[in-house]
Design a protein that fits this description.
It is built from 3 helices and 14 strands. By secondary structure, the protein is mostly beta strands.
């Protein structure tokens, strides 16, 4: 599957079960054992949500590749919501420009091999995420799901952000390379659980500074 085909597949809506991951939490700190898999069908692409406060030295895409393991990792890709385009980094010559990791922003991680990646950090309960509604992208944000958030399903996330503000929540199903969307309207798609470590597309009707409800 080419990158053009992969990213062009976002319009596909498919309901498929996802695998879970183990989370150990203490107050707002946590240690997550997250499976970054290399399925043949999608070329080993996973979504990854990092914490607000990441471990020391994890500030850029190149740092993330090194932390996961250079031999294990093919690329790290971010969604640029102001343009609707994607930017990828690979730790090879002409592998794309490095970019900073931003709190609240999700990433695609393409793997050469399957790795159980240990994510360490903490969430900031006072940090509001700017979920914007730019005309150029139809208001889509690639949101890093907060690890201590009380919204545990797509429908709960829509309610927490605000039903009037939110158009849809979409997950990438890495076992198939397809997407599944939920909208809080009739025939709006099946609800689905939110998984710590995964990132989700959140399409907005209006711009909101979203402060997640925490436990």
């Amino acid at each position: 599957m080419t990158k053009k085909t992969f990213f062009g597949a976002m319009a596909v809506v498919t309901a498929v079960a996802l695998t879970g991951s183990a989370l150990v939490a203490s107050n707002m700190g946590f240690k997550l054992n997250y499976a970054l898999t290399s399925p043949v069908v999608t070329g080993g692409t996973n979504t990854l949500a990092l914490p607000d406060n990441r471990q020391t030295g994890l500030g850029t895409a190149s740092n993330l590749v090194t932390d996961i393991g250079s031999a294990n990792t093919f690329s790290v890709t971010r969604y640029v919501k102001s343009t609707g385009a994607f930017q990828s980094y690979r730790q090879v010559k002409s592998g794309g420009a490095d970019f900073p990791l931003v709190a609240g922003e999700g990433y695609y991680v393409a793997m050469n091999t399957t790795v159980n990646y240990i994510v360490v950090g903490s969430d900031d309960p006072s940090l509001a995420y700017a979920l914007s509604s730019p005309i150029v992208t139809g208001g889509t944000n690639f949101f890093a799901y907060n690890y201590h958030q009380t919204a545990t399903t797509a429908s709960a996330l829509v309610t927490d952000i605000g039903a009037a503000n939110t158009f849809s929540v979409t997950r990438y199903v890495k076992s198939t390379g397809a997407f599944q969307s939920y909208r809080q309207v009739k025939s709006g798609g099946a609800d689905f659980p939110l998984v710590p470590g995964e990132a989700y597309y959140v399409a907005m009707n209006t711009t909101v500074n979203y402060l997640p409800s925490h436990y």
